[in-house]
Write a structure and sequence with these properties.
485 residues, TIM Barrel, 2 domains, 8-stranded parallel beta sheet, 18 strands, globular
Length: 485
């Protein structure tokens, strides 16, 4: 165990973390059965800025897989297999401070569904084990005591609870909400919730099966100042905040933050070879300090991106000596320089696309290409103008009067070597009011992902008109959304 003397000495040296967390405090813990009353929090932009200003955090993958040398825990294993013999969350916090990190994020539930807090739900959890320690409570107490902010990771996919594609029921959605209620009413203020296993190619659970907006609003009602981040970067354009207050990029999966990115983001990567501790990691390779600091941390911070470096605890519940040493080396090579450059405002999409899958027509139909490729929900497919045309349009029939207040346009910039910038000279969104077309939004030279918040209107037909620049423009997706005010 870390001595109190060692803890205080290191906490004193890490002034930056304390400065950033000085106005944090531990929120008054609510009774676990209490439902938080909806309340107004800080402005989203302020919360996003506060998060990216943290710059560097510790991911803590610690769950059933830790005890099985696996990346996903075996969902058939008994709960009592989870047995840390010398849990020391104070040591985690001190190690994070030594690297000049300012926050942490713990895997409260991973894909197998084991909960490392004593949930009152029917799920397998630490309360059913010989150890029975509330790992989440120990973690938040240690990190807050050290002046560090806290985040949670929670997998929507749960193999133990059979929360899988085509197997989701309202009872299972309620299980998710009940567990999240516990996490957000027992443990004080949480800065960010990172969700996983949701609308991913490998899990296939859609935002309709487990309704994203319902879960999003549930969290915001409990803690309006908690940011939501879903690990969906491979599915959605990197320059848009689709189903996330903060855009996530998983470096281990090859997801890179684009040059010039101006959305609030996090990038997660491992210090060891994998996410969860393997017995071989005690003597295995770790990422070099130069890689972490000079190739990841500093360049990512220039792109409004917070780096979250995974340092997995071992089966004892501690960080192994080689990880502790490497984190100290990182701290000697990098010092927190203070706040990042100011973020611009970005619209967050949390509801379904009303245009997706609806009847759509276009000004032209090139061979094998149809306008349906612009509202199929796949950002990797595109509709484009007939060769030789310099202007065109797309028109979507929403099939009934729909209220909406957000329209979007995604162009496949960066998808190929020959599409490095926008090919649209100007564009305009219109809607039909029953007599004529009225303009909703317009502009010139759009960004790769252009999302307009407009005054709420009601219409059945929406169209996009565009003028090309020098080359033929492609439209990957158009969107129509009804977002909360």
């Amino acid at each position: 165990m870390t001595s109190r003397r060692e803890f205080v000495q290191l906490a004193t040296r890490t002034a930056t973390a304390a400065m950033l967390a000085s106005n944090h405090g531990a929120a008054t813990e609510q009774k676990e059965t209490q439902r938080a009353t909806p309340r107004r929090g800080l402005q989203l932009l302020d919360l996003q800025q506060r998060f990216v200003d943290l710059r560097f955090g510790m991911f803590l993958h610690f769950n059933m897989a830790t005890f099985q040398d696996r990346e996903w825990g075996d969902p058939t294993s008994p709960a009592d297999l989870f047995r840390p013999t010398a849990l020391d969350t104070d040591q985690w916090a001190v190690a994070a401070q030594s690297a000049n990190m300012t926050w942490g994020c713990l895997t409260t539930r991973h894909h197998d569904g084991f909960c490392i807090w004593p949930t009152k739900s029917t799920a397998a959890n630490v309360g059913q084990t010989f150890h029975s320690t509330d790992i989440v409570r120990a973690y938040v107490d240690s990190f807050r005591k050290a002046g560090l902010r806290v985040g949670f990771y929670y997998s929507i996919l749960s193999l133990r609870d059979d929360i899988r594609h085509f197997n989701v029921t309202r009872i299972k959605v309620q299980l998710i909400k009940d567990q999240l209620t516990e996490l957000f009413t027992r443990y004080g203020e949480v800065d960010i919730l990172i969700t996983d296993g949701w609308d991913a190619p490998w899990s296939r659970i859609t935002y309709e099966e487990v309704p994203f907006h319902e879960i999003y609003e549930h969290i915001k009602n409990l803690q309006p100042d908690c940011l939501i981040c879903d690990l969906n970067a491979s599915q959605y354009p990197p320059s848009g905040l689709y189903y996330s207050d903060v855009k996530a990029f998983e470096q281990n999966a090859g997801q890179k933050v684009p040059e010039g990115s101006d959305v609030p983001a996090l990038s997660c990567v491992t210090l060891t070879e994998g996410w969860f501790w393997k017995q071989r990691d005690a003597n295995g390779p770790l990422k070099p300090v130069k890689t972490v600091v000079d190739e990841w941390l500093r360049p990512l911070n220039l792109k409004h991106c917070n780096l979250i470096l995974n340092a997995p605890p071992n089966r004892e519940g501690q960080l192994a000596p080689n990880l502790v040493s490497r984190l100290e080396e990182i701290g000697r090579a990098w010092t927190h320089p203070g706040p990042m450059a100011k973020l611009g405002k970005h619209v967050v999409v949390t509801t379904r696309n009303l245009a997706r899958g609806k009847p759509i027509h276009a000004s032209s139909y090139p061979d094998t290409v149809g306008p349906d490729e612009a509202n199929d929900g796949d950002f990797h497919s595109s509709w484009y103008l007939e060769e030789g045309q310099t202007s065109g349009w797309l028109e979507v029939d929403l099939q009934k009067q729909e209220s909406f207040n957000v329209v979007s346009l995604v162009e496949p910039v960066g998808k190929g070597d020959n599409y490095s910038e926008s090919r649209i000279r100007s564009y305009r969104f219109d809607c039909w009011n029953g007599v004529n077309w009225t303009t909703l939004a317009n502009g010139e030279r759009p960004t790769p992902t252009t999302i307009h918040r407009i005054s709420r209107v009601s219409s059945q037909r929406v169209r996009l008109l565009l003028e090309s620049s020098n080359e033929m423009p492609h439209i990957a997706e158009i969107g129509v959304y009804d977002e909360p005010d």
